[in-house]
Design brief:
six-stranded mixed beta sheet, homodimer
Chain lengths: ~425, ~425
């Protein structure tokens, strides 16, 4: 039986594995975590609205009944394409086909030292760290008597005006300006301030200008100040420098820019400036019809020559496409070009506030928000998660208070 | 307005605060965490059945509408009873009355170095660490080809046969022997083994012998080996030494023995061998009618001269009792002795398996288990938590699979 090794259990890898189930193949999934993560809702874990288990599901649970599927928790250290071998955690495994679906990490444009002060949001661990940071900051502010010193803990700066940045800014705006403040005695809501910083002249780049402006207006209603055309020139423990403007803050979240995983360098294929593998029209790497790269790790262009966004639908369609080639053993010459079907894009800003482009139609406000809710519930990985997220959202909608406001690790340095 | 400072937001502290609300007093709660924790269900977080947020609730949320209550996240460093002052996180606060409800920690009978290999279970952070340890161990076992080496990762040793130890052993027995194993390809359920180690001749000391034996039988049905009369003489990274028997394991959990917090030494009052404050009949410390110690931190005896167990009902009754004295400003001479009303004791072993003594009646099996479920649901701190725990339990009951099987921090040393 031929063996397919899949590196990464995200949207691309998991869809590929599921699509391969109907063929007579051995499937091996290696992931750095033990769970598939529904990343589009990760910002809600970071903002205390959802629990980690609401949006994550053990990868091996998805394949309980499939004896031909093995799942390993491991970090791939090396790919040897010549000998068709993958090395991880002191062991190695041979493959007939390899699917590389390793995703991406945030990056700091050559300033890795900023990460310490401005964490990014890609994993559950990232989200929990941001949650603790936000909550600890409010706790610290409550204890500080000096108004000027307290202000630092009540300023929130989110860098990057893509969907993650917008969603984070909106959610934090709702929390600090409306929901939570009545739990505190010394914090004046007027003192709290959320900033969303974007280097170019608009937020939500892939959206039409009209919707970008609408999102900006929605954010401003949540008391978020959107700063456009502002490039971060420095980040330190006391705040963010934007050219000649300095914002004092103990809370910086980084949602600007992705970079592919260094593991891709192992593939001996050309990478683009963000470190993504430049793939052939069948998503294989140069000169190797058995190695595919999909999802955020691949630089794939649409028919207009525009690079596909790093979004779940693209990764999932690629996973399906690759599974078919492998399962039906389609020879290199006969493989048709991968074609992305655009199902639309959407971003939410807050309660009853969202923007979306679906089949060419621009949506905003309540209707876009409802569409956003329904689609995100539907695409969650299990019935269990769908039920839980729905219950949490209803709770939040009714009480206006995010439910998961726990500080689990007591970080002394912040107190 | 007189100020009552309460150190600790556990069962004792929180009940005291709530009972004080009806009086015209300023109330300040200081806790090391930001949440009240429903500790009786903590083992279910450690065994992946519940999420942290299911059993924890932000302390300040309980007092949102009470402007006379302030809550601070902080660690009390010093109590100055002479000047009626409490020092925490670089600041200090004066009190008219002080309630010390600081709980306890597990202790290692003079071998603190064992903690690294045998973590205890008192906080959410403890529970998450144990959860990661158990799940990582299975992941590691799945990768190991050598059967003898693999066995180490499939042995689980729980030290201490009190309620926590019994509940942990039962839950881990259910997980590793029944529920999860079908998710793994290389792990043979016959290889997994759970041991419960107790130094004296019976488990569940406060229970009648008949129920202790029943609990032991129930555990054995879950393939847990109960080792009585066995004292741990050494713990290291490869296992546990019990006299001349050595059990090889990478998974040791410590559920033996409590020790009160060192902060109590500040009170200038006599402590017992476990570090608890020996209190007067009105729960005050020697020569100070304004300082009360309640809950696990106090050594309180019942009418028969027997020390009260460190359980929630005792702490809650003490919190209420103390609040009345403070609220009604009862003078030292007129304070009646604290009397503990025994509402019963219970422990669960697994699905449809529990033991209980309620109003002198011995219960076991399904009926005791149902009583256990109902009582634990009822005493959860909020409607939200009650709803969530019920939903999780129903899920677990139907699917036989704990739902929160997430490894969030990828601990490299285990891989």
């Amino acid at each position: 039986m031929k063996r397919v090794v899949i590196i990464g259990g995200g949207f691309g890898g998991l869809t590929a594995a599921k699509s391969l189930l109907k063929y007579d193949l051995e499937i091996v999934i290696i992931d750095k975590t033990n769970h598939h993560l529904f990343q589009p809702l990760l910002y809600q874990v970071a903002t205390a609205a959802l629990s980690p288990a609401d949006i994550a599901h053990p990868i091996r649970s998805s394949f309980s009944g499939n004896k031909n599927v093995s799942v390993f928790l491991g970090e791939v250290a090396k790919i040897d394409t010549e000998n068709k071998k993958v090395f991880f955690n002191g062991t190695s495994i041979n493959y007939d086909y390899l699917i590389v679906a390793v995703g991406s990490r945030h990056h700091y444009f050559g300033n890795p030292e900023w990460e310490k002060f401005a964490p990014g949001l890609k994993t559950l661990n990232d989200a929990l760290q941001i949650r603790e940071k936000i909550l600890l900051s409010l706790e610290t502010a409550e204890k500080i008597q000096d108004v000027k010193e307290r202000k630092k803990y009540l300023n929130y700066v989110i860098v990057g005006g893509g969907p993650t940045g917008v969603e984070l800014a909106g959610a934090i705006g709702e929390i600090v300006n409306k929901n939570l403040i009545k739990d505190y005695r010394n914090i004046d809501p007027k003192q709290t301030k959320v900033y969303l910083v974007e280097a170019i002249p608009k937020i939500l780049t892939p959206f039409p200008d009209k919707l970008s402006l609408r999102a900006k207006k929605d954010l401003e209603e949540l008391a978020v100040e959107v700063i456009l055309n502002a490039k971060v020139t420095s980040v330190n423990e006391n705040g963010v420098q934007l050219g000649d403007r300095f914002i004092e803050t103990k809370n910086i979240i980084w949602a600007a820019g992705n970079q592919a995983m260094p593991l891709l360098k192992n593939l001996n294929t050309e990478l683009d400036s963000a470190g993504r593998a430049i793939v052939n029209h069948d998503l294989t790497v140069d000169n190797d019809p058995y190695v595919f790269v999909i999802g955020d790790a691949a630089a794939v262009k649409d028919d207009n020559g525009k690079l596909l966004s790093a979004i779940a639908p693209a990764a999932m369609q690629q996973g399906k496409y690759v599974a078919k080639i492998i399962g039906e053993n389609i020879s290199k010459e006969q493989r048709k070009k991968f074609k992305y079907k655009d199902r639309g894009i959407m971003a939410t800003i807050g309660k009853a506030k969202a923007v979306a482009v679906i089949k060419g139609f621009n949506l905003s406000g309540l209707f876009a928000w409802l569409a956003w809710c329904v689609i995100h519930i539907l695409f969650l990985i299990s019935f269990r998660n769908r039920f839980r997220v729905m219950a949490e959202w209803m709770w939040y909608y009714i009480t206006n208070r995010p439910g998961i406001r726990l500080i689990v690790k007591y970080t002394k340095e912040n107190n």
